[in-house]
Amino acid sequence: MVKLVIDGKNVAVSEGTTILDAAEKAGIHIPHLCYLKDINEIGACRVCIVEKKGMEKLITACSNEVEEGMEIYTNSPKVRSTRKVNVELILSDHDCMCATCVRSGNCSLQKIANDLGIVEIPYKRIAEKHRWDKNFPLIRDASKCIKCMRCIQICDKVQDLQVWNVSGSGYRTTVGVMQNLKIQDANCSLCGQCITHCPVGALRERDDVSRMFEALADPDKITIVQVAPAVRTAWGEGIGLYKEEATMGRLVSALRSMGFDYIYDTTYAADLTIMEEGSEFLERFQNRKEYKWPMFTSCCPGWVRFVKSQYPDMAENLSSAKSPQQMFGAITKTYIADKLGISSEKIFAVSLMPCVAKKYECDVESLSDAGFGQDVDLVLTTRELDRMIRADHIKADDLKEEAFDDMFGVSTGAGVIFGATGGVMEAALRSAYFLLTKKNPNPESFRRVRGLDGWKEAVFEIEGNAIRVAVASGLGNTRKLIEAIRKNEVNYDFVEIMACPGGCAGGGGQPIHDNMEMAEERGKILYGLDRNANLRFSHENPSIQKTYEEFLGTPLSEKSHHLLHTDVTQWEPNK
Q1: Dihedral, CA of residue 562, residue 507, residue 404 and residue 328, to nearest 10
Q2: Contact 99, 107 (CB under 8 A)
Q3: Element of type H or E holding 380
Q4: Backbone phi, then psi, for 359, in 5-degree steps?
Q5: For 202-241, b where at least 16 C-beta lie within 10 A, e where not — what string?
Q6: pLDDT of amino acid 574
Q7: Distance set, CA 133 to CA 140, 149, 180, 272, 557 (Å)
Q8: Calpha distance 447→149 (Å, rounded)
Q9: CA gap 93, 33 in Å, rounded
Q10: Using CB atoms within 10 A of its CB, is residue 442 exposed (0-12), middle (13-18) or buried (19+)?
Q11: Could you give phi then psi for residue 353, rounded to 5 degrees?
């Protein structure tokens, strides 16, 4: 152990520990902006500077390791004065219009500036001009960028896509799209991880809140909203609710207060996806020679964009089943409209998603099979949902427990775990087992695909058939898995991919907690809901059974293929 003194406190930590980590372990917070543990430890912002006794020059706490006997001062007059100057310089190159910024109140730069007592900026303002296509699902505001390099590092080291790059030097330093490409041409997956790891408001999703309020106010529109599984784990974070308070019933109450006409659970469509995708897998598995292997899940549009741009020859391996979002949209404007006795032309179908790429997916031209415009008209992220709740002056304490609307609010634990990495695979295997054996397995039989390991694999035997599966989350892990498949180093039958590390629970549209990864904690909520669910198999969902009996016929029927399946090879990625 290395022994040192930080702000007069004796500290002992392992060799190789940074001063920043040593201080945190001792309960001493050192402000920082650019630091992301194991990802961005370059000391670029110079906010985490500290004073080392006996040394004239200040040093960065994030990139310097502890030494035996060293004495560190994290907030001495010299440190405080220099840190204030450094932050003032950052602010001089930053659009400080906090009142119109989506990160106001949840911005690391804003908090540090306030803590330092900065009330004016004594330097010339040189913020970069903002130029961007505001119709693209991901928005970058150059005038707010502080050149911390986090977006570059998360995209390079975690997602392995290299969308962002830095150019210039000194005050001309700028971050932009690689090779000066337009973002539409940069093969961005729209995973949104750059957004959730930006410490300020330089990156955000396209804001569609105004469009939503306009639709709610339009007397000729019938608004039908679906709520994704992962949204229920995080929606309360942005409005100050503890996870125990942020129940699904209270979210339904908030949506009713806003004026949504019908409120349904996307897990209904997740169960529908399992029926279609699981049946498709079994059909392929029993006719192996007719298909390319392995079969990939297709419910994550970030992953679909990735495979189409990076490995287009493997797009044929994707399941043809639409995502739950798109299945729900198609069913909404056909079967649900008929059951409710309303005009499909008047329906404005909305989905609440933990995802930025879903905004792209709903606009794919071919995803309009119901015949009444796009099957899903609008996608809102969890963050946009929270902004709507605040804009409508809805008090969290006043929300009561309310149920989803009848029939299509029924869900299973299998549908709920779609929001966690491995959840789609586990849900599919539960029903595949039933479809092959006509009996249910123990619902915990396939739990080996759970967990946050970036690449997991397992072999399950069903009726004497060995089914080799793999699960990957995060596109860097995905690339490693695909390269191994292409080199014949591994061999699988069924592979689940989620673009975001930890799956949808850690999605790019979820609430932001700087320097905290929330996917694991949110995923535990989903598995807890599954464990306590009355129904844990998609094929047992009475709403699903009724949908097939009254409307679709059987999984993979002609009507099912028309409404619930798509040819992803025809999707246009540059939108």
Answers
A1: -10
A2: no
A3: strand 378-381
A4: -65, -40
A5: bbbbbbbbeebeebbeeeebbbbbbbbbbbbbbbbbbbeb
A6: 63
A7: 9, 22, 14, 36, 41
A8: 37
A9: 15
A10: exposed
A11: -130, 155
- Where are the strands (E) in 243-368, listed by range? 262-265, 295-296, 347-353
Cβ(568)–Cβ(303) below 8 Å: no
Distance in angstroms (rounded) separating the CA atoms of residues 232 and 418: 12
Which runs of E-coded beta strand occur in 147-279?
164-167, 174-177, 203-205, 222-227, 262-265
Find where tokens 């490409």 sit.
Answer: 181
Question: Reduced to 3 states, what is the DSSP secondary structure of residue 525?
Answer: helix
Cβ 60 vs Cβ 30: under 8 Å: no
Contacts of 5 (CB under 8 A, 6+ apart): 11, 70, 71, 72
Q: Give the per-residue pLDDT at 92.
A: 94
Q: What is the mean pLDDT of each run of 10 residues along the chain (575 residues)?
A: 96 96 96 94 94 96 96 97 97 94 96 96 86 94 95 97 89 87 95 98 97 98 97 94 92 97 96 95 92 95 97 96 97 96 97 98 96 97 97 91 85 94 94 92 93 94 91 98 97 97 97 95 95 94 95 97 95 73
Tell how far CA 532 is from the center of its chain.
Answer: 25
Considering just the CA atoms, what is the radius of gyration of the chain in Å?
A: 25
Task: Label residue 521 exposed, middle or buried (CB < 10 Å: 0-12, 13-18, 19+).
Answer: middle
Tokens representing 315 are 């797009």
Residue by residue, DSSP assigns 4-53 as EEETTEEEEE-TT-BHHHHHHHTT-----SS-BTTTB-S--S--SEEEET
Burial 128-151 (b: 16+ CB within 10 A, else e): beeeeeeebbbbbbbbbbbbbbbb
152 near 160, Cβ under 8 Å?
Answer: no
| Strand ranges, E, within 446-574 | 455-462, 465-473, 494-498
Residue type for 299, please? Answer: C
Compute the distance between CA of residue 332 and CA of residue 121 in angstroms, rounded to an integer: 53
Q: What pTM does this model have?
A: 0.95
- Give the span between the Cα atoms of 21 and 313, in whole angstroms: 45
Chain centroid to CA 451: how far? 17
